[in-house]
Amino acid sequence: MKERAEVLKEEVRKVVKGSMDVSKTLDLVITLQRLGLDSYYKTELDELLHSVYNSNYNDKDLNLVSLRFYLLRKNGYDVSSDIFLRFKDIEGNFPAYDVRSLLGLYNAAHIRTHGDEVLDRAIAYSKSRLKAELEHLESPLKGEVSFALETPLFRRVRILETRNYIPIYERMSTRNEAILEFAKVNFNLLQLLYCEELKKVTLWWKELNVQSNLSFIRDRIVEMHFWMTGLCPEFNYSLSRIILTKMMAYITIIDDIFDTYGTTKESMMLAEAIYMCNESATVLLPEYMKDFYLYLLKTFDLIEDELGTNNSYRLKRLVRGYSQEIKWRDENYIPKTIEEHLELSRATVGAFELACASFVGMGDTITKETLDWLLTYPELLKCFTTLARLSNDVVSTKREQRGEHHASTVQCYMLQHGTTMDDACVKIKELIEDSWKDIINEYLKPTEQPSVVAQTIVDFARTADYMYKKTDSFTFANTIKDMVALLYVKPISF
């Protein structure tokens, strides 16, 4: 299968190099991206998009304008949204366009920043129209519209989009057979690799459980690896996925101790031991934590030996936040403002630690300067951790508040503005949309860092959106079991 993949890769390369027309070029680029093949032709696709950016095109075709805008912004071109003003009527709507054009507009408009009022209006109008038209549509357009209304194209987890889109592309009369076959072969090879990685981390997880004897922790190793495939799905990031899965496992265990199982005193003991990051600190710990702590140090030593990087400092930042949240809980303290809450709770969602860890296994692309830059907590990373915290809180707060738990951003908003929980959740969802705008604004800013850095942080935001779409799918993993089966168990047939 690997040999066939190499043959198909070069066949598709000929298709890429033969692309000329703007419309066909855009269709090819979006197809390769959705099928998960674009990473093989990065140089060629960058050249094509640069050509599209500088070429004339039919700026009266809403579908074409939308796709051009979407792909250029998605790939870092800060193109103006003013192009869409010509399609509005005097009331600010887009009534003269078919469903396919409105779908393109809807997806394009979600790559918006603050100040893109025309895109705000485009989303509101196209969403309403697409919902009204949905029951009258036929496949595959009906499926496309349904997917978009649940998750617009830019926010979809890339590897899951690939798994869902291959059968859609297969039904298209305009499909290219070489591209289709390569997409199938490539996905099936990735699936085999993911299963090998899952086997490794599962054996590691079982050894950790045996040695640590922590019966109370959430057993979510499959879900952890599933989440990490969304961050860096390509073949060459296998080591990153394994490191990330282990990091997330430790974060989950520490969270369960601080949040659910440990007493305040025991949690503070664990925090002190992690600050020390030394075997001698085991004397501080209750008996049930000692083996876990030693295993934690052992894993960090192995990663440091292999990659020459230290991971312990990131957990120190995390447990400081957990310790403060315990203090809030014990004192029944609710922060006076959302921002006061976020100053702490951005840290305790674990997103910063994972984002930093994601780059240590990416090879020479990521330099020490890049890692140092990440440790300054740049605005893009701050925007992502805000989104992750708000997304987690809005689906978890009702469950968590049934027992003893520190106040979430939802309770904080309720106190600050005197609203009900339902009204607060509506507002938090608006703040999540603002966070997406912030992320895209930072994503479009020129930077000295490798492009993979911003792209990976955006992928983190996509996975948070997926895992917290309707519920906390990490805690209630049955909600994603079908997608887990498609990613690991069911290969794509030919």
From TrEMBL:
Gene Ontology MF: a single term: terpene synthase activity
Coiled coil regions in record: none
UniProt keywords, alphabetically: Cytoplasm, Metal-binding, Plant defense
Domain Terpene synthase N-terminal as annotated: residue spans: 1-149
One Pfam family here: Terpene_synth_C
UniProt pathway: Secondary metabolite biosynthesis; terpenoid biosynthesis
InterPro entries per the UniProt record, alphabetical: Isoprenoid_synthase_dom_sf (IPR008949), Terpene_cyclase-like_1_C (IPR034741), Terpene_cyclase_plant_C1 (IPR044814), Terpene_synth_N (IPR001906), Terpene_synth_N_sf (IPR036965), Terpene_synthase-like (IPR050148), Terpene_synthase_metal-bd (IPR005630), Terpenoid_cyclase/PrenylTrfase (IPR008930)
Entry GO terms, CC: cytoplasm
Biological-process GO terms, alphabetical: defense response; diterpenoid biosynthetic process
Location of the protein in the cell: Cytoplasm
Family per similarity comment: Belongs to the terpene synthase family.
Protein name: Sesquiterpene synthase
Entry superkingdom: Eukaryota
Membrane-crossing residue ranges in chain numbering: none
Names of required cofactors: Mn(2+); Mg(2+)
Domain Terpene synthase metal-binding: 206-438
